[in-house]
Amino acid sequence: xxTIAEQYLTAxxxxxxxxxxxxxxxxxxxxxxxxxxPFWVTTYxxxxxxxxxxxxxxxxxxxxxLLLAHGVASDARFxxxxxxxxxxxxxxxxxxxxxxxxxxxxNGEELLEWQAGALVHAHNELREQLDNTQIILGxxxxxxxxxxxxxxxxxxxxxxxxxAGLLLMAxxxxxKPTPRRFARAILNLTVLGxxxxxx
Length: 199
Description:
Helices cover 43% and strands 23% of the residues. The protein has helices at 4-22, 80-88, 108-129, 142-156, 179-198; strands at residues 25-34, 37-46, 52-54, 60-62, 65-69, 93-97, 135-140, 166-169. Strand 3 and strand 4 form a beta hairpin. The radius of gyration is 20 Å and the shape is elongated. With 199 residues, the chain is of the alpha/beta class. The protein has a 6-stranded mixed β-sheet with strand order 1-2-6-5-7-8. Strands 3-4 form a two-stranded antiparallel sheet.
C-alpha cells in the first residue's frame, strides 16, 4: 500500500513537475499609443497551456494575468527571469516599457499621470485580447506608484475588481519628488553604498 506522500507524488507532484519541465515562454511585444505617445508591452505566455482553477460555480477559469510596470532605470526586460519562472507554473504575464522623463516633455506629475494612463490602456487592451481574463496590476520600485495610480483610474472607470489586488515589489516612496525627499533618498543610498563596500 503506497504511503500518502507517495500517492501525492504520483497523483500531483509528478504530473506538475513534468508539465513544468515542458513549459517554455513565448515572448511577444506590442506597440500601443496613449495620448499620441507610443509605448511597448511585452507579454510572456507559457507554451504548454495556462494554469486553471474552478470558481464557486464549478467553472474552470484561468489564473489571473500579471501586468507590471518597471522602475526608473529599467524596462520590461527587468522581469524576464521572474516571468519565465511564472510561465513554468502556467501563469501568463506582461510588462510595460514606459518612456523615461528625458524622452518626453513632461514635468514629474504629468509624466506620472501619463504613465498611469498608459498602464490602464495596456490593461484594457490585454483584457480584450485575453478574453476578459482577470489582470493583476503591479510594479517594481517607482513602477508601484504608477500601478497604484492606474488602479485608482480603473476604479473611477468602474473597470476594476476588488479581488484583482495589487502586486507591489520594493515600493518607492517618491510619489511627488521634492528637493528634501531627494536629499533624504541620496543620504539613505550613501549609507547603503558605504555598508555594501565595507562588507
